[in-house]
Amino acid sequence: MKKIVWLCPPLMAALAAWIFTLLGFTLWTAVLIALLLVCPGVIFYGIVKVFRHPRGLSPETLPTRGMPLDVLAPIYDRYCPMIGLGRAFRRQTIRYAGLNVGESVLDIGCGTGVLTRLAADSVGPAGRVTGIDPAAKMIEVARKNAIEEGSRAEFRLGVAEALDFEDNRFDCVLSSAMLHHLPPDLKDKCLSEALRVLKPGGRLVLVDVDRPTNKAWWVVLWPLLFWPFTEAQVKGRIGEMMLESGFSRAERVGGWGGGLLGFWKALK
Fold first, then answer.
1. What is the total count of domains within the chain?
2. CATH value at residue 231
């Protein structure tokens, strides 16, 4: 039964994408529309699971009002490429981060650790990269993948709103497709915590749901204006939130998926 549940999101996304290609949409646009249609169902399922267990989706998962994705851990590495968030997307994030050999990096909401491991490759043996996630099953998969690939990346349980690191620890903080999993007040705490653990002059590189640069996306995205987790982001307030958290500068440096996701870079 569990295997059937895990297969539902990718199968639903694939079916929806196929239907939209038949309606005349390009494959890439069809996949992105399918993502937007399937994600709310996955999120709803996650909420139900959280409420059924007071500490999250598994006993080890950390308590948070954000949305741990334990339920997707077994299929996450296959699911993400299906919806356009494969290695090319992760490598683009690394390029915007501009990582240097020997730097110290934190990946908040690392999931199965694909981006974390790429960051570890970029900083080399002299650097140090740590990925955190509240979902115990995600961290379990991330550690397994790191061992199999011989990666130096480290993984631990952690929540974005209360980072278990000292001040001025990291040269760069990464956050990839995680911010929309947090309610508004936790978004603010996450950004403030990222600022706190960054060294002076350090940078935060964040990619997430953003105000679309293509107006046609509003045909699909308008429901996100009524969900507190995404309202501020689709209204284009990511940069404003960064500045309000204390960053000295914040700018949108790129986009992904026809402008559906925005890459943001902020400096301490």
1. 1
2. 3.40.50.150
Give mean pLDDT, residues 10-18: 53
Instruction: Average the pLDDT over 229-255 and give the result.
Output: 95
Task: Decide if pLDDT at 45 tops 60.
Answer: no
- Structural domain for 213, as ranges: 2-267
What digits encode the pLDDT tens for the residues 71-125?
788 888 887 887 778 889 999 999 999 999 999 999 999 999 999 999 999 999 9
| Cβ atoms 131, 110 nearer than 8 A | yes
- Contact call for residues 63 and 55 (beta carbons, < 8 A): yes
**DSSP H or E segment with residue 40:** helix 27-52
Q: What is the 3-state secondary structure (H, E, C) of 52-79?
A: HCCCCCCCCCCCCCCCCCHHHCCCHHHH
SS3 213: coil
Please tell me the predicted confidence (pLDDT) of residue 2: 42
Question: Considering the entire predicted model, what is its pTM?
Answer: 0.81
Secondary structure, 3-state, 124-171: CCCCEEEEEECCHHHHHHHHHHHHHHCCCCEEEECECCECCCCCCCEE
Q: Tell me the three state secondary structure of residue 120.
A: helix
Q: What is the spatial distance between Cα 148 and Cα 46, in angstroms, rounded to a whole number?
A: 29
Q: Which residues of 224-261 are buried (b: 16+ CB within 10 A; e: fewer)?
A: beeeebbebbbeebbbebbeebebeebeeeebbbbbbb
**Of 11, 123, 171, 136, residue with least CA distance to 64:** 136
